[in-house]
Amino acid sequence: MTWIVIYNTLQWLVRIIMLAVVLRRRRDPAATLAWLTIIFFEPFVGTAIYALIGERRLGRRRRRLYRKVVVATRTPERQDVQLRHVVRPELGQTGADVIAQSETYGGMPILGGNSVELVVDTEQMVERLIEDIRRAHHHVHMVFYIVVDDETGRQVFNALAEAAARGVACRVLADHGGSWRFFRRGGLASQMRSRGVDIRPCLPVNPLSRRMARLDLRNHRKLVVIDNEIGYAGSQNLVNPDYGHPRAGPWHDLMGRFRGPVVSQLQTVFLEDWMFETGTLIDESLLEQRMASRCDMAAQVVATGPTDRDEAFEAIPRVLLAAINSARWRIILTTPYLIPDETTLMALSLAVDRGVQVDVVVPHRVDQVLVQAAARYYYDRLIDMGVNLYLHHEGLLHAKTITVDDSFALLGSTNLDRRSFYLNFELNVLMYGPQITRELRFAQTRYLSESSPIDAHAWRNRPLLVRYGHAGAAMFSPLL
Description:
Blueprint: H1 2-25, H2 29-41, H3 43-53, H4 60-73, H5 76-83, H6 92-106, E1 111-119, H7 122-134, E2 139-144, H8 151-165, E3 169-175, H9 188-193, E4 198-202, E5 222-226, E6 230-234, E7 251-252, E8 255-259, H10 262-278, E9 297-304, H11 310-326, E10 330-334, H12 342-353, E11 357-363, H13 369-377, H14 379-385, E12 388-392, E13 396-397, E14 400-404, E15 408-412, H15 418-422, E16 426-432, H16 434-449, E17 451-453, H17 456-460, H18 464-474
Helix pairs in contact: 1-2, 2-3, 4-10, 6-11, 7-8, 11-12, 13-18
């Protein structure tokens, strides 16, 4: 009997302590309520889970390192080089809010004189990348969330090893969580290191080395820079088109192949990630600036992540909201994972109310069952708002894109969910002007043509048990 009293007393003590901790450290009411619910039902288990994944905690050492990284990479000399190419897109008053948010919170200026080739086919993307690697003279820099020892991975890394053999500096960062098989002893990473490719893991999944920093913070970026002339960014990883998930079918990604001054911003992101993981700043005197204007596209890199700077993780939500609020006639949005917060839902609702056609394209089936169930909970609200919701049936639509009127186009690695907004290190490119917006919308119309609209009547009359399942999964949406 005494042990029961002690146990219950400890449970309530943990609940009270964690109530104070969670209320003090969390700002999102929905996530706060979700965590407190878990902790109050299971105080010890809930507290242990919260200690591992409850906060955006990089660890004190990494926060200090990040501040050093920013000081070291965003030097006056480097910024002066970019300032020569700064432009102010003429988008009228409706676009001023987007520009203000992107410049204030994105951390990098809008640069003119760029060009981009949109690559929507996975095999074509791999071919283009290998071709560019084979032409590299000085360096190849890469960051990927998922790297797999499969046909695609080996083709790309064989090209890297051949480049390293002729004296090209090849540096690769791969997320340790997303690419854990890649780093297995004797695996592809070890083989390529022996051939001269410098490969490092991002955010190692090791509680001891991370010193109790949050373990599920991930580097979700997809980035390539070659000779400071060519840059890639978008949604594609170094893996075969089926991603090893035959349940969902082949994945459909979209990458941009950039040339012009914006490549220097992609390079800055790589240099920051490299120093963040290795503690070493690459000597930029070795990285010849080749930033000649290639075209007239204005573009800007927006890199986000859970650092100790609010603007580092608020950039994309703020830019997205400003873009939605600026729309006057058309928004198309594609995302594999759709778990919007209340602010985004309200912005989409207001856009529909003022006559904007809002089309949202999501996969019919995704690789994560819980995430899919949680996302489907929001379909009712989106349909009731008047959003045109489409299910893509040709495999898994993994492209993360947004177009607004004839003004803005965004592609990158960010999903429309809380994890991408507030937890992952993400990379996006915001592009301005009617030409690129129409080009990206043309790619989006391909996804629309492969999709079918959700029938509102049939969806509202789905089985009651299914509705309860979606609602139950949605309870975890603040944590997904």
